[in-house]
Amino acid sequence: MSLAIRLEPAGGEPLHIRIADSLRGQFEHGALGPGDPLPTSRDLARDLGVSRSTVVRAYEQLTREGWIEGRVGRGTRVSDRPTSAKGRPNWDLLLTERVRGQSPEYADVLRMLSEPDLLSFAGGLPSPEFYPEESFQQITSDVLRHQGTKLLQWCPVDGYPPLRSWIAERVGCEPDSVLISSGSTQALHLISQAFVEPGDTVVVEAPTYSGALRAFRTAGARIVSIPCGPEGIDVDRLEATLGRVRAKLLYVVPTYHNPTGSLLSTEKRRRLLAVCAQHGLPVVEDDAYATLRYDGPHVPTLRSLDDHELVLYVSTFSKAIFPGLRVGWLAAPPELVRRLSALRNVIDLFTNSIAQGSLYEFCKRGLLEAHIQRVRPLYAERRDAMAAALRRYCPSLQFEVPHGGLFIWAQLPAGIDSRRLLEEAVELGIGFMVGSLFFAEEGGRDRIRLCFACHSPEMIAAGIRKLGLALKQVRPDAEEWRNAGADDLIV
Amino acid sequence: MSLAIRLEPAGGEPLHIRIADSLRGQFEHGALGPGDPLPTSRDLARDLGVSRSTVVRAYEQLTREGWIEGRVGRGTRVSDRPTSAKGRPNWDLLLTERVRGQSPEYADVLRMLSEPDLLSFAGGLPSPEFYPEESFQQITSDVLRHQGTKLLQWCPVDGYPPLRSWIAERVGCEPDSVLISSGSTQALHLISQAFVEPGDTVVVEAPTYSGALRAFRTAGARIVSIPCGPEGIDVDRLEATLGRVRAKLLYVVPTYHNPTGSLLSTEKRRRLLAVCAQHGLPVVEDDAYATLRYDGPHVPTLRSLDDHELVLYVSTFSKAIFPGLRVGWLAAPPELVRRLSALRNVIDLFTNSIAQGSLYEFCKRGLLEAHIQRVRPLYAERRDAMAAALRRYCPSLQFEVPHGGLFIWAQLPAGIDSRRLLEEAVELGIGFMVGSLFFAEEGGRDRIRLCFACHSPEMIAAGIRKLGLALKQVRPDAEEWRNAGADDLIV
Question: Is B283 within a domain?
Fold first, then answer.
């Protein structure tokens, strides 16, 4: 190959820039086209009489601009895809691994669920029709009237002090053990940023909350999964696994688990804590759903059973009242809260202080408790309506009826892929979450998560009837992935 | 040294746990005390007849629990500090480098400034006495009344659509180029998470916004500084530096710079963009202060002068109205906004939707513009009052009067350390920001930043008079760090 590199007379430009300019000119004028090979950096350096690192820098510059690409075994070539104009950054090449590595599956499913007028059982959300808007509006007005100047200005990073104290009392700790966050999602982001270096191991339940999986993965975690069934996480498997892997964190949703709805017994909670204490392993307890209890036993939080300061406790107002305000919290030893606050300061300073002030008033006046008492039987009624409709219209599905929370987790008949079922369901006007989103590894293709909170019993019946129709329309898959089950999930 | 390791009979416990248990027992019973040496893992493995990696794991477990510590050249020893009880995690050892590596200086200064009743010139904040609380309260009530159900439930990750459109029109782009964030701080966090891998170079002005320094450092960036004086960033130095370093991002505050107040001329903006285009280098333009213009020329944003899609534009409502709502935004090419939204989804889902809805109504009704028109002359008056008071009470300080923004950046007399001056000032009841916080490397000890927006001209005069007293009380430092100036800041 002949390559005519003409280096313009030196005008203060570094040599590698001049080499890049010359090559770019040849791409722009078509002397070299997509797929054409470039000489190795060694050869070109020798031909031009410059150091090899100078050529490497010129190639790197052109790679960033999208003009050329290198592939193992193929050498460096002119890029196939339309290159950007000179000087325009090639954003894709500039992005970090944590962004480029994001799985498209979650976004794909959200796109499928974004159909207008879908009767959706997908979101993990409370029901807006029960929202105490009028009282909340009154309280917000009061708060703006009496404390607007203060609250619109600034707020401590760790939270509005009266709300912090209220949460501390409820959790059973001191206020300086509480950090108020923008939803529990942010608490999980903070924890993963604070504890997970790329390659560190985080142990989770399988299935588990998909947002937690994304948070830990974004921090570069290696995920190790422990099966979680109708009785919660398998503590024996946890114990065996912790003997083999060196973990940085364990993440669990012990109460009305997302997505399975399971409730871990007090005895198993004690065993889980003993196993983790043996390894000095911190436990992230995600307690988003505890207030939504419909029947069954009261079970104490892991935090309240913890004698070893193992538990980082995370919760939120998003399930008990409404998610739009983005207020959650974590409870941890005070020295750790100080560290996490300093990190939080870098992330977004503090949580909207009007929201914090209004929520505090709402809680202080007893309205949170009243709201929870009011919605519990209504949600229980919807849970029962969904269970009845599933038995009637979808007899081939298997599921347990949860004692609390927002979800029914159902197993599909052999060979039915939940993603294909969702396609049919969306055609018929209903939506749900596909099971695979809740697994770090392969798994869950035969499961779906249905939120029963957001629609009336009548709408639930109508929607589940359509789910039954969709089930009839999906032909079982020949491929036998069904039995690639729990055993494959364990590292 | 004799060490009696008794391995309990195997009861399902992995070997390394049993070794750790045995050693822990000896620490707990005082057989081994603080500072006592432990055998090397090689020796202990030989003595016990186990593999070396088993002993390494036992030692790692005890290190995590805080019982033992290893130091280069000293071997492994029983930890000096009070160890935690068995099973209790040693949080400090578990934290990531990004948290452990946080400089304590910023927190120290904030602590000094947290004195009650301080007349503070420290914060970069607008003045609460001008807040349009009544109209905002009315709007928030309306929004909750008419859209509460919708907004309290959920909001797209990229922002409340009407507000996104309003911002897009103002910025001069399409709505899908806008991502609404929880303050511009979060936009900077997103950008640093999206572009900075540990070790990547980010080029900044020196001095620059300390929150940006913290965001980039937390992502592991190597910071390269370019001097920024009364006329803004030194574009010649930028050009020379970019010829030598391979940078991932350039971060600048070209309009009413924080902390210097400088305004980069249109001509220099064009040159800056040309230099960056030559390297395909993305430019983060932080435009938080642009609306606060008091006199001097209108200068177009870098974004509006950019022909190469180089600019990631960041701004906020926090300086133009109030920071308590935590609403800011970034503008970027749509495909990049989609990527950043997916990352945002992991960080905290979305920004408080009531705040977004209320701000939209506030802007749509023209109240933002009216507010800005109202406060400009008031802030200009305060700027002039501060300049006059500085000339009168602190004639040894040097400073320029800025055309906009919130700050006066002043140079102290030779040998006066701003940190020591702050100690004296706090004693006298006033506060300011020390200059060193705005530099990535050494520098700024002879500078202070004074915010003139938050107090009346009379209070400003009284406060600056006290600053003059504090200056008289601080004796110049013998150490000559003053001339360790701009040249040392350049990599």
Answer: yes
Burial class (CB in 10 A: 0-12, 13-18, 19+), A69: middle
Rg of chain A on CA atoms, in Å: 27
DSSP state string for B400-429: ---SBSSEEEEEPPTT--HHHHHHHHHHTT
| B80 and B187 belong to one structural domain | no
Dihedral sign (CA A111, A115, A120, A125)? positive
Q: How many CB atoms lie within 10 A of CB B189?
A: 29
CA distance B332 to B193: 15
Q: Please check the confidence at residue B239 and state whether its pLDDT lies above 50.
A: yes
The number of C-beta contacts closer than 8 angstroms across A and B is 279
Inter-CA distances, A228 with A207, A238, A298, Å: 6, 10, 20
Residue A22, domain member (yes or no)? yes
Among A97-111, A477-491, B61-75, B431-445, name the one with the lowest average pLDDT: A477-491
pTM of the model: 0.83
Range of the domain at B66: 15-94
Does B430 fall in a domain?
yes
Q: Give the chain A residue nearest B326 (alpha carbons).
A: A352
**A111, A153, A242, A353, best to mutate vs chain B, most B CBs in 10 Å:** A153
User: Degrees (nearest 5) of the Cα angle A235, A236, A240?
Assistant: 115
Judge whether A324 and B353 are in contact, CB under 8 Å: yes
Helix (H, G, I), strand (E, B) or coil at A226: strand
- Shortest Cα distance from B146 to chain A (angstroms)? 10
B181-237: per-residue pLDDT in tens? 999 999 999 999 999 998 999 999 999 999 999 999 999 999 999 999 999 999 999
User: What is the CATH number for B68?
Assistant: 1.10.10.10
pLDDT of res. A14: 76
Task: Name the closest residue on chain A to residue B12, using Cα atoms.
Answer: A240
Contact list, A282 vs chain B (CB under 8 Å): 89, 91, 94
The Cα B157–Cα A218 span in angstroms is: 17
Q: How many domains does chain B have?
A: 3
> Worst-scoring range by mean pLDDT, A102-116, A131-145, B181-195?
A102-116
Put simply, the answer to whether A98 touches B193 (Cβ < 8 Å) is yes
Q: Looking at residue A279, what DSSP letter applies?
A: T
* CB contacts, 8 Å: A98 with chain B: 193, 343
In whole angstroms, what is the distance from residue A285 CA to residue B117 CA? Answer: 40
Chain A residues touching residue B350 (CB < 8 angstroms): 326
Assess whether B183 and B265 both reside in one domain: yes
What mean pLDDT do residues B422-442 have? Answer: 96
Mean pLDDT calculated for residue range B248-271: 98
ipTM exceeds 0.90, yes or no: no
Kindly state whether residues A220 and A355 are assigned to the same domain: yes
Chosen for mutation from B96, B139, B345 (greatest number of chain A CBs closer than 10 Å) is B96
Tell whether B72 and B124 lie within a shared domain: no
- Tokens at A16, concatenated: 């590698």
- Cα radius of gyration (chain B): 27
Does some domain include residue A6? no
Of A85, A123, A355, the CB nearest to B352: A355
pLDDT tier at A15, thresholds 50, 70, 90: confident
Q: Beta strand pairing status for A247-252 and A283-286?
A: parallel
The confidence band for A12, taking pLDDT boundaries of 50, 70 and 90, is: low
3-state helix, strand, coil in chain A (%, to 5): 45, 15, 40
Q: Give me the sheet containing B433-434, strands edge to edge.
A: B398-399, B407-411, B447-451, B433-434
A218 and A307 belong to one structural domain:
yes
Give residue B484's pLDDT. 41
